[in-house]
Amino acid sequence: MAATKRRRLPEVDKENLPGNVCSRNKHCHAGDEKVKTVEEIYQKKSQLEHILLRPDSYVGSIERQTQEHWVLDASKRMSKRSLEYVPALYKIFDEILVNAADNLIRDPTQNIIRVEVKRKEGSLSVWNNGAGLPIQLHREHKCYVPELVFGHLLTSDNYDDSEKKVVGGRNGYGAKLTNIFSTKFVLETADSRSGKKYKQVWEKNMTVCHKPSITQNKSEDFTQGRKEVSLSF
């Protein structure tokens, strides 16, 4: 029987096989110019960074959508229409509006909520009468109450689950989301109990917090939040 001649297989560069995993980590292939470090692969984000990085988890989709909704038409009647809008933009407006509506539960004398939209300026403001926020320092968190409510995440006066909940905000985000998705956010409130008026400005998605301006005031209580709209999600 004739001897079988074996063919010699070509040598294989095992280090550069497609899909070969680099011994340093599973996110690179040998031969890649740049190898990710452990710090680049496994990351930890602050709450604010996470909200900006994953807005859909907090305010809904940032994609333009078309849906049917009931709207108030020019004749002051409700009609169903097809609307094109961005759910996230709607949500950050809704958050500050709900904040104003919730104040009615705290102060039944409130009878005005005023909304002003300035398209050319790209700004939106919500004003309500009724009891203003207490203008006093919070001893535990070392800042004024209005700053705590509008500029610190996970703060709320609705955490007592033994109380019956009839308000919209419960989870400590609320109006802070409006602040975060604004290039500029201005808060004003008057507190007749202390006879003071409070004004504070945040900029760059709530990353820059200016010191509050506190002045003497004799006018009635009110609270107003004004945001300059940022569409750059």
From TrEMBL:
One of its GO terms (molecular function) is DNA binding. One of its GO terms (biological process) is sister chromatid segregation. Gene3D superfamilies: Histidine kinase-like ATPase, C-terminal domain. GO terms for cellular component: nucleus. Residues 94-182 form the Histidine kinase/HSP90-like ATPase domain. Its cofactor is Mg(2+). The keyword Isomerase applies. InterPro entries: DNA_Topoisomerase_II, HATPase_C_sf, HATPase_dom. This is DNA topoisomerase (ATP-hydrolyzing). It comes from Symbiodinium necroappetens. SUPFAM superfamilies: ATPase domain of HSP90 chaperone/DNA topoisomerase II/histidine kinase. Its EC number is 5.6.2.2. The keyword Isomerase applies. It catalyses: ATP-dependent breakage, passage and rejoining of double-stranded DNA. It holds the Pfam family HATPase_c. Keywords: DNA-binding, Isomerase, Topoisomerase.
